[in-house]
Amino acid sequence: MINVGLTAVADHPDLASGRTSSLADLATTFPVVELDTTYYHVPSDQVVSHWLQQVPSSFQFVVKATAAMSAHKVEDPHDAGAEFTGLKRALVPMQATGQLAAVLFQLPPYFGVSATNIRVLNRIRTLYPELPVALEFRNAGWYLPEYRDQTLALMRELNLIHVVVDEPQTPAGSVPLVAASTNSELSIMRLHGRNVAGWQRGGAKWRSERTNYRYTQEELQALGQIAKQLAKQSKQVIVIFNNNGHHDASPNAQQFIKLLGLHYQDLGPQQLDLF
């Protein structure tokens, strides 16, 4: 099964029924979403309840771990214990309905291969022994020839979900696309685009330019073959389009769905356009 979705909920004008797109809008077209607001703070019970109310019961969520939990602010996730506990508690209703696909730990670029960081990964699994945990490495060292097999073996040992990344390949050490599954239930692909210049750009507009890219049909077809390959190793593959610097994610994701001949049941109701 291949499920396709987006991140940045409010930033898809082609889907918006109001001034900005909502979860309800995304659920009319896609069966899954990645929530990135949780990277900044643990959501309240009321917020999680509101999320669930906006979507069909079959709709799934990939929820980002907070910055502290994913080693952006502290060296050891044990120091972020309160946030681990708070997020786990907040996600209980989502887990109870079977709508929590994964908690995504997007690790920082400086999180390289070391004995200390391996202990961090073990600690994450210790703190979340039963939740589906996905890892996205942003340091290419984990995939160097001398470490790649050990990295994947460790993830399999800990039953962690491998995030397969497509991003611009720059001299600064971009993470390569490693099409390997480490979890029999789920693999995740996160597609950031291939804008090399934008990926390296600084300045005030770096966030939007970083993911300013529209995949070609040929590129989508190649990525689709990778998704199909992963689907032979995991029961479900979630493909998240994050190439939304200039609002290309939703059109590209819909094109991807058509190219792969995917059809989703139980989507949210379409809003009527009366004018």
Task: Give your account of this protein's structure.
This protein has 275 residues and is of the alpha/beta class. The protein has a single domain (2-260), classed as TIM Barrel, CATH 3.20.20. The protein is 32% helix and 16% strand. It contains 10 helices and 8 strands. It has helices at residues 23-26, 45-53, 81-90, 92-96, 115-127, 148-157, 196-200, 206-210, 217-231, 249-260, and strands at 2-6, 32-35, 60-64, 100-106, 133-136, 161-166, 186-191, 236-241. The protein has an 8-stranded parallel beta barrel with strand order 1-2-3-4-5-6-7-8. Helix 9 crosses helix 10 (249-260). The chain is globular and about 50 Å long. Pfam families: DUF72. InterPro entries: DUF72, UPF0759_sf.
Secondary structure: number of strands: 8
Looking at this structure, what is the CATH superfamily? Protein of unknown function UPF0759
The CATH architecture can be named as Alpha-Beta Barrel
Poorly predicted runs of 5 or more residues: none
Helix fraction bin: 25-40%
When the domains are counted, the total is 1
Beta-strand percent range: 15-25%
Question: What value does the Rg take, in angstroms?
Answer: 18 Å
CATH C-level: Alpha Beta
- What's the number of helices? 10
Protein name: DUF72 domain-containing protein
Pfam family, one: DUF72
InterPro entries: DUF72 (IPR002763), UPF0759_sf (IPR036520)
